[in-house]
Amino acid sequence: MNSETYLDFCFIRAATGNFKDEINELFKKLFKGIRLNWYLEEKTEEGIEIVIAEVKGMSKWQSEDEATDYIEGHADEAFWSYLQGYKMFIYPAKKGCSSCGVN
Length: 103
Prior knowledge:
The chain has helices at residues 19-30, 64-74, 77-82, and strands at 3-14, 36-45, 48-59, 83-92. By secondary structure, it is of the alpha+beta class.
């Protein structure tokens, strides 16, 4: 069953331009075939570029550890060089209906 997935990332690098576009391309490759959408917010301050990424949708991951394992195995080197922080919440689907928990 699919899980509700919420991932937040913070990426930082020296200002060279088009950082938001580069992060978008990294996400397209990293999350290809996974039903996730993302919103990217870019800021430039004091010679650095910052991209805050909010990723949400449905995934097959059942825990934050599974999501981390996937990202560690599939992310490009650039992803790791820019990543400064992250937060993850994975909410697995519960079996049964919400009223009785059986059907």
